Amino acid sequence: YSIRDQERDCLCKCITVFGKRYLKFIIEELIAGLQRGYQHFVLLHTVHSILIHISTLTDDFNIDSAKKTESSKANEHENSSYKPSNIPEAKTNKTANVMELLGRLIHSNDELLTCIEPIRQQLSLSHDSRQISKCEKCLQRFQTGLISNTHLSIESLFIFIYHLLTKTEENSSNEKINNKTFNKTNEERSKYHLIPSEPKRGHARVAQSIIHVKKTNIHCLISWTLNLLNKLIKKHKNDDQTFLSMIDPFIIHI
């Protein structure tokens, strides 16, 4: 039973006494004080302990105010390659657990996109298969938390899914338009050359075609979103006209 475990217990008791108004302040102070090296692992374990404690409280504890900082720090920890062997917190990864707890405890529809944004950015920027696998694991656990969430209505979840699908597809279409414009501009420029440029061969040609494709992993997010939609429909399936009308906007995406 280390001194850090005692501090976590003390923080949980403070949250119980002070209430949800001071949760954001406590999280921000933890982030400001735990910034270097192994302290990131201590921070994530501390946040995990706080979320577990909040989930056991009988009162309606809204954690939306601290949601942004928690999700971003959890994503940073998941992508970290620095793992010291002499730190107990570094031996276990709590990122997926934190994402599931966030999905279960979230109250606001607006904060759903805030939780997804760090993972979406990581999928857009990274091409490492290990990082993509970690992001998919976090998304899966976040989905598990959303399915068991009792604070969000089915309407709020459907709105979140629709917004995420349309936003992702718009970004993909805009990227395709930009690529077409770029290629067209290059073709127009090549018309004015007296001597045509040498065609690319072998690896250079492959590299030329890949360099402009930046968002090749967004399909993971779309697949996760459609899977969440499928599970929600199965869970709340009924013949009510209101429920059927909420499914109509997703026909074009399915």
TrEMBL record:
**What are the residue boundaries of the U3 small nucleolar RNA-associated protein domain, all occurrences included?**
2-164
The record's region (Disordered) falls at 69-89
**Which InterPro entries does the record associate with it?**
SSU_processome_comp_20, UTP20_dom
Biased composition of type Basic and acidic residues is found at 69-80
Mind telling me which GO cellular component terms the entry cites? 90S preribosome; small-subunit processome
Q: Which domain of life is it from?
A: Eukaryota
Q: Per its UniProt record, what PANTHER family does this chain match? A: SMALL SUBUNIT PROCESSOME COMPONENT 20 HOMOLOG
Name the chain's protein: U3 small nucleolar RNA-associated protein 20 domain-containing protein
